[in-house]
Amino acid sequence: MKSKTLRDLFLDQLRDLDSAGTQLTRTLSDMARAATSPAVRRGFEDHLSQTRRCVTPP
Questions:
Q1: Considering the entire predicted model, what is its pTM?
Q2: Which ranges of 2-37 would DSSP assign to H, the alpha helix?
Q3: Is residue 13 part of a domain?
Q4: What is the DSSP letter of 56?
Q5: Per the domain annotation, does 12 fall within a domain?
């Protein structure tokens, strides 16, 4: 197995974080659609909006 450099490890972490953001966006969207309480739906939608701002490149 090839040794990874610090740069390789850093890039692996960035990819993992990007993947987590994408997964969270999908999950929050699904949860907002499934919510029966308007207050809960709004909470998921607010969190989804914040998450999208964090994971979308400028």
A1: 0.77
A2: 6-34
A3: no
A4: S
A5: no
Are 47 and 26 spatial neighbours (Cβ–Cβ below 8 Å)?
no
* 31 burial via Cβ count (<10 Å: 0-12, 13-18, 19+): middle
Are the C-beta atoms of residues 57 and 21 closer than 8 Å to each other?
A: no
- Tokens at residue 11, please? 């890039």
Rounded Cα–Cα distance for residues 54 and 12 (Å): 18
Q: Is residue 36 part of a domain?
A: yes
Within a domain: 42: yes
Domain that holds residue 38: 28-58
Write the pLDDT tens digit of every residue in 5-52.
Answer: 999 999 999 999 999 999 999 999 999 999 999 999 999 999 999 999
The SS3 assignment for 18 reads: helix
